[in-house]
Design a protein that fits this description.
By secondary structure, the chain is α+β, with helices and mostly antiparallel strands. It has four helices and nine strands, in the order E-H-E-E-H-E-E-H-E-E-E-E-H.
Length: 185
């Protein structure tokens, strides 16, 4: 199996773990936001081509501001049950994914187009029944790393990490936040 996603930092994983939900909980170490699914049996050549296609996109992308504030369920998955997920709100994330898909298309790299509408989320659990949408205390963070996970087993698994570099305008935002924090102290 191979897919590109945004990793969720450990301190944010702990916040997601605290979101109340029923069902079989997903390991907090596997929390992520899928950007693109490359397939179940993805040959190493396809992964290599994907890395080449994605590198320029990653170099031009600044870190992404992400927000989760609602838990919903997706339609039943025949293998796992009903996914209980936190929706991710981020217009920049949708634009980033579009660039990723364009780069993969231009390079001829195959990826799943099973779900034409991109609905970014973090899967919390799998249950036997759907739930009514519920608001949660907002969880906000900045994603600064995309990861290409490949392989099904410990022995044949590998990971390619892409850091999303800071850009001058983002550094200015960060500098302002640091100055504001010092003022409060």
């Amino acid at each position: 199996m191979a897919f590109l996603g945004l990793s969720v930092p450990s301190e944010i994983r702990s916040l997601f773990r605290g979101v109340p939900c029923n069902g079989n909980k997903v390991s907090k170490d596997s929390y992520h936001i899928t950007l693109c699914y490359l397939g179940k049996d993805c040959p190493v050549e396809q992964i290599s081509d994907a890395v080449k296609a994605l590198a320029p996109v990653m170099q031009s992308q600044r870190p992404l501001k992400l927000l989760a504030k609602r838990v919903i369920s997706f339609p039943e998955n025949p293998d796992d049950g009903v996914p209980i997920v936190c929706e991710i709100d981020s217009p920049d994330l949708h634009a980033f994914r579009k660039k990723i898909c364009q780069a993969l298309d231009a390079s001829g790299v195959e990826y799943s187009k099973k779900y034409p509408d991109y609905r970014p989320h973090v899967t919390l659990s799998y249950d036997t029944e759907s739930i009514d949408p519920q608001d949660i205390d907002p969880i906000e963070w900045v994603a600064a790393e995309a990861v290409l996970w490949a392989g099904n087993n410990e022995d044949d698994r590998f990971v390619v990490k892409f850091e999303l570099p800071l850009r001058p305008q983002y550094e200015a935002d960060l500098s302002y936040l640091i100055r504001s924090a010092r003022t409060l102290l």
